[in-house]
Design goal:
- This protein has eight helices and no strands.
- It has 212 residues and is mainly α.
Length: 212
């Protein structure tokens, strides 16, 4: 691409749309419901930083790693769809997803959920990984690469701000409103999960059956 601005705009819209910070809020709020605000903010920060590091890792080595292990992005979509569906099912029942076990400390629980499911696959899912690999390949020079890295960081900062403001929205809604929102978002997450699952499964089946 000749224009740095066009490349940057494409990268921002692609990452922001695929990561969808607003869509992460219900699951994040559910997972951190029993934490203090400081603890919840720490979880969000760790999740965002982890997601950013994963995106950078795949931007540099993604195609090489996928080729080495013979992994297709379609397989990643199938697994991501299953994880999304399980999370959405819990939300549909207005349950806290993977609520903290009594014997597990808040610190241990926070470390656990910050990585999975928040960083992976909610923030950095198959779509974000794919975009990282593709746009890195399209970044023809150091200027384009610098723009790409800046955009990745910018989108992560925006995502962090969305997550930090999640509790204000939930406090406004109240307990009943939160449960209603959780059920609605759970249904939406399950629908997205089905789309995600079949978007990965269809190419795999076609490849197995040699269908053009």
């Amino acid at each position: 691409m000749n224009s740095l601005f066009e490349f940057g705009l494409l990268a921002f819209t692609s990452f922001f749309t695929m990561i969808n910070p607003i869509g992460v809020i219900p699951i994040y709020a559910s997972l951190t419901a029993k934490m203090t605000q400081k603890e919840a903010h720490a979880v969000a920060l760790k999740a965002v930083l982890t997601a950013l590091l994963i995106m950078l890792f795949f931007a540099f080595t993604g195609q090489l790693v996928f080729n080495f292990f013979h992994i297709s992005i379609h397989s990643l979509r199938v697994v991501g769809g299953i994880i999304f569906f399980m999370a959405g099912y819990d939300m549909l029942q207005a349950k806290l997803i993977r609520t903290k076990d009594e014997e597990k400390s808040t610190v241990e629980f926070a470390k656990d959920i910050a990585i999975t499911p928040l960083a992976i696959p909610m923030i950095c899912g198959p779509g974000a990984i794919t975009i990282s690999i593709v746009l890195m390949r399209d970044a023809v020079d150091y200027e384009h690469k610098a723009i790409l890295f800046f955009v990745m960081i910018l989108v992560m900062v925006v995502t962090l701000l969305f997550l930090w403001g999640a509790r204000k929205v939930l406090n406004f809604l109240g307990d009943n409103g939160n449960k209603v929102l959780m059920r609605i978002m759970g249904l939406i997450v399950m629908v997205i999960a089905i789309e995600f699952f079949f978007a990965g499964l269809t190419p795999l089946v076609r490849n197995m059956l040699k269908i053009e």
